[in-house]
Amino acid sequence: MKPSLPGSYFDDIYRRDPDPWRFATSDYEAAKYQATLDALTRPRYGRAFEIGCSIGVLTRQLATRCDALLAVDVSPLALEQATARNADLPQVSFARMAIPNESPSGTFDLIVMSEVGYYLSMPDLELAADTCRALLNPGGELVLVHYIRETDYPLTGDETHDFLLRREGFSVQADEYGGDYRLSVLKRTG
Question: How far apart are CA 157 and CA 71, in angstroms?
């Protein structure tokens, strides 16, 4: 079993290229972000949490639907860009955080985990799932979006989604494929 990728892995990537996955320029990413926003079941959310915000492109779009949005990433280099990109949005705050070993205080109506879960080992994904459930208000949504083609990450996108879709305490609202990615929406039960 592969261990979770460390924060230094991402810092090395961002040192080589400030937008290594072309989040700001890729048509694929733009379409995926639009599908993510379209999958949200509410027009507006009180408090939201974005795990792995990277350079803040999706963050900016999510912010239009949230009264307050906490966006976190393990890489300070990515967070610098995200903070600058969203500096004009007072409802957005940023923090350096390594999920699942660290988590914010309070609860949320929405948690977005886009392109993050497969960087974790299975034990860490299990902890992340428990953390997300504990952080979500009843009826709150967990949105998952992951690339599903071959990678060298600890898990595949499908393994990440299949595991989380089977977790107790969530009901599946949507589970769809969008070409090279999978998008799932889970609602916290109880």
Answer: 21
pLDDT tens sequence across 49-68: 999 999 999 999 999 999 99
Q: How many domains does the chain have?
A: 1
In whole angstroms, give the CA distance from residue 74 to residue 99. 8
Please report whether residue 98 resides in a domain. Answer: yes
**Cα-Cα-Cα-Cα dihedral of 188, 37, 39, 115, to 10°?**
-70
Q: How far apart are CA 72 and CA 125, in angstroms?
A: 17
Q: Is residue 79 part of a domain?
A: yes
Name the pTM for this structure.
Answer: 0.97
**CATH for 123:** 3.40.50.150
- Residue 1, in any domain of the structure: no
